[in-house]
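Blackboard transcription, Thursday session:
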Amino acid sequence: MRVLIVEDEAPLRAQLAACLRQQGYAVDEAEDGQVGLYAGQEYAIDVAVVDLGLPQLSGMQVIQHWRAAGRRFPILILTARGRWQDKVAGLEAGADDYLVKPFELEELLARLRALLRRAEGWTRSVIRCEPVMLDLSAQRVTVNGDAVELTSYEYRLLEYLMLHAGQVISKTELTEHLYEEDFDRDSNVLEVLVGRIRRKLDPTQTLNPIETLRGRGYCFRLQRSPA
Amino acid sequence: MRRYAAAVIAFVSSVRPPERVASLQTRLLIAASLVLLAFLGLTGLSLERAFRNSTLAAIQERLQAQVYLLLGAAELDQEGRFTLPEELPEARFSTPGSGLYAQVVDRSGKVLWRSPSLLGKVLPSWPAPPALGKTRFVIAAPAGTTPVFVLGFTVNWEISTNQYRRYTFYVAQSQQPFQEQISSFRQHLWGWLLVPALLLLLVQGLILRWSLKPLRQVAQQLKAIEAGEQTELSGPYPRELLPLTDNLNALLHRSQRHLERYRQALGNLAHSLKTPLAVLRNALEQPTPTAELRDILRQQVDGMNQTVAYQLQRAAAAGPLALAKPLALEPVARRVMASLAKVYADRSLRFEVQVEPALVIHGDEGDFMEILGNLGDNACKWSRSRVILRAYGAATPSGRMTILDMEDDGPGIPTGQVPVILSRGGRIDPSVAGHGIGLAVVRDLVEEVYRGTLEIGSSPAGGARVRVCLPS
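(Written on the board underneath:)
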């Protein structure tokens, strides 16, 4: 998942970026409204964290521009002003949730996870496709109740495919959303990761959860369970 | 206090456009003087005209009478020639240069008789003879001659049966006495008009000064307020000024309350931040194990965070607005509830907003967003499936109240827990996120700023009901 952080306070931005990278997110950083606006329009952002008090262009304006340009990714606003008037204004401008500074990083991560799954139509933090269950909060995967041990990269890939269950996801989309700019796009890392996930989820090769569509990409083909 | 009074004064004087403007008194005085002058001028002109007309009419009448006198005195001698006696009925006809002249001509225009007063006088050409039985009155003043009034009258004399002769009698009078009369009248007239005009202007100036005195008083009192000698505008003021002075007073009181709140918030902040800072400093100076230090740090940072958030939100309250237009509550309620619905999109809660469409409040939009937002947020956190906001006006023993009810269908709040959740940082269930200052902020806003009440009870929907009563 690719997160854009638009925050002018360098220490806070660095903290957030480090924390999100540690959690396996691909992170883009912007130090002011102009850079943020550009990044949100040009990159394959899954979720944006926007501080409202920005130099150049206010966070509110950045959000309005994105929404006017048809960008639909969820947005979490950070604000030092805790007044409801500001929250309402931010939400009306197009944000999806807010967090008042100071906040705990855990809280931020929980809000981001919730926004990401809501954007794909999942209402609970445990998502389920037939026997495969993925707990977004605990970052745990089980098949028929048996825990599956995944590395951080494997987990991110599976999470992305499962959140978009039923959709065909191209390799380009996967690299764009899971890795930062300097990722070597020509490597076969994705194939290797998908192969490992398949073996871990389905050692007996009966489920076949991830389908390869030659030349088009991958699809998590197990049915979404009603939330 | 001074700064706020200065702000109020700046607000009042900002109503005036930047360029220099004539004072109200000057404006009124100029306008009234112009009207007065125009009125008196027109009066004078028409009086003068009326006097002139009536004088002219009198002159015409007198000349006519002279014609009749001459007519009566005229006769024909034995040869049938037209004659007038030596002794004329009007002595001025006989005195040369007397100013009264006469002449009689026959049908062909031949002069039959000239009055002795015409001796050596050059009079303007006599006007053409009028028709039979008619008079003609002419004001003749050609250059180089004495201006005169001339009256001509044509008669037919029956000399014998069916034999007539036609004569035209002219009587002329110098215009000099008339002009003198007119100019003397004019002098008197304007003299008499000028005196009352000046008197009226003076009286008017005094009236204006008297009428504008309350305005000057307002300005003086505002100066006194700015100087800190006074805290409000003290009356009595005339009815027309009451809205202004009342509103200014309301504005001043509001600024005072604001200032007090800021001061209080600053005081509280300073007070409640220094304790945790002292704890932190002590912990740093003593050799404290890292784990313990971390605990202390977390505790104190949490406490400071809560203090800052609470005190800042308290200070930010705008309070009741006497001057602002009434705030329609319904759109505010809908916006807040829509925002909550967005934030709690996962919970698939049903938001029921029942606000009387005509309900208005004299307050600040931000304050009411704060009240509704915090109450709604609380309700959303606890509710199972429904969040209900009702707002309506109601008559109570203590007057008309506006009531806001925020209800949910959650577990409700046990009576014993009410003081806990109303206190700063009080949370029944620490696992539910939030600063825990929401309800405390609402209570302060409602009770201290808007002089209302906040009451926690149970909802017919099964959960808690927080009721806010505000005086209308």
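Lecturer's comment: Residues 272 and 412 of chain B are 32 Å apart (CA to CA).
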